[in-house]
Amino acid sequence: MSNAEIRVAVLGAGGRMGSEAVKAVQAAEDMELVAALRRGDSLDRITEAGATHVVDLTVPDSTEENVRFAVQHGLHAVVGTTGWDGERLQRLEQELAQQPEVGVLIAPNFALGSVLASAFAATAARYFESAEIVELHHPNKVDAPSGTAVRTAELMAASRREHGVAPSPDATEKQIEGARGAVVEDIHVHAVRLRGLVAHQEVLLGSAGEQLTIRHDSFDRASFMPGVLLGLRTVGSRPGLTHGLDGYLDLGF
C-alpha cells in the first residue's frame, strides 16, 4: 500500500468515463485507487477501503445519494455526473453545512480546454448582439442539452445581464417545435447526437458584419482526466461547494 494522502474511490468505474478515471488515478504518483465501484455495488465499500476522496461518474438517478454518502462520511467528492439542478444543489449545501471541512466539486466538464472556452465565451458574450450554442455528442449520451452547454449558457447570460445586453434578436413567428433549440436563460442551445462524435461545443457570437466562433473538441475521454486529477488534488483545500472547474483555475478575469 502506498503512502498517498489522496485515496480515491471511483464510482461508475464500469462506464466509459469511469474506466478512464480508474486508469488516471492508478497512474498518478500522489494518489492511490482504493475502490472501483460498479452499478449495484454497496457504498459501504468506500469507507471499508479507507477512501479520502470520491469521484462520482455514475448516472443522474444515483449521483445525489452517492455524494450525500461521501459528505456524511467526511469524504471530499469530485462529481462529473449531470442532473444537479437548483433543488439538488440546495440540499447538498445543507449537507455540507453539517460538514464544514468537506469539499465538493461539481463539474459539467473536466476538459481544461472546454472550461477555458466557456470562460472565454462568457467574457465575449457581452460584446455581441447575438449568441447561440451548438453542442455535439455521441448518441449514447442520456441528457440534452449537455451540462457543459447549460453551464456555458448560464455564464454567458449572467455576463450579458450584468452589462445590460438585450436577448438575441429573433423574428421567428412560425416553427416546428424544437427547431430553435432549447432556451437556457435567453440563450438558444442546439443539441446534436451523432455516431462518431465524443464531446464538442461551438459558441456562436454575432454582431453586424462579424461573427466570432469559440469551439472546443474532445476526441477522446482521456482529455477529461487532467481536470479530474486537478479536482482531486484541489477539492480538499476548498471546503464547501464549487460549481465548475473554472472555480479552481486562476483565469485572471
Low-confidence stretches: none
What does the radius of gyration come to? 19 Å
Main beta-sheet strand count, sense and barrel state: 6 strands, parallel
What's the CATH C level of the largest domain? Alpha Beta
Helix and strand pattern: EHEHEHEHEHEHEEEEHE
Family: Belongs to the DapB family.
GO molecular function: 4-hydroxy-tetrahydrodipicolinate reductase
Keywords: Amino-acid biosynthesis, Cytoplasm, Diaminopimelate biosynthesis, Lysine biosynthesis, NAD, NADP, Oxidoreductase
Catalytic activity: (S)-2,3,4,5-tetrahydrodipicolinate + NADP(+) + H2O = (2S,4S)-4-hydroxy-2,3,4,5-tetrahydrodipicolinate + NADPH + H(+); (S)-2,3,4,5-tetrahydrodipicolinate + NAD(+) + H2O = (2S,4S)-4-hydroxy-2,3,4,5-tetrahydrodipicolinate + NADH + H(+)
Detailed description of the structure:
- The chain is α/β, with parallel strands linked by helices and 253 residues long.
- The protein has two domains: 6-106 and 222-248, Rossmann fold, CATH 3.40.50.720; 112-219, Dihydrodipicolinate Reductase, domain 2, CATH 3.30.360.10.
- The protein contains seven helices and eleven strands.
- The chain has helices spanning 16-27, 44-48, 60-72, 86-97, 112-125, 147-162, 225-234, and strands at 6-11, 31-37, 53-56, 76-79, 103-106, 130-137, 182-184, 187-193, 199-207, 210-218, 240-243.
- The strands form two sheets. The protein has a six-stranded parallel beta sheet, with helices on both faces. Strands 7-8-6-9-10 form a five-stranded mixed beta sheet.
- A hairpin with a 2-residue loop joins strand 7 and strand 8 (187-193).
- Helix 1 packs across helix 7, helix 3 packs parallel to helix 4 and helix 5 (112-125) packs parallel to helix 6 (147-162).
- The radius of gyration is 19 Å and the shape is elongated.
- The mean pLDDT is 94.
- Pathway: Amino-acid biosynthesis; L-lysine biosynthesis via DAP pathway; (S)-tetrahydrodipicolinate from L-aspartate: step 4/4.
- Catalyzes the conversion of 4-hydroxy-tetrahydrodipicolinate (HTPA) to tetrahydrodipicolinate.
- Keywords: Amino-acid biosynthesis, Cytoplasm, Diaminopimelate biosynthesis, Lysine biosynthesis, NAD, NADP, Oxidoreductase.
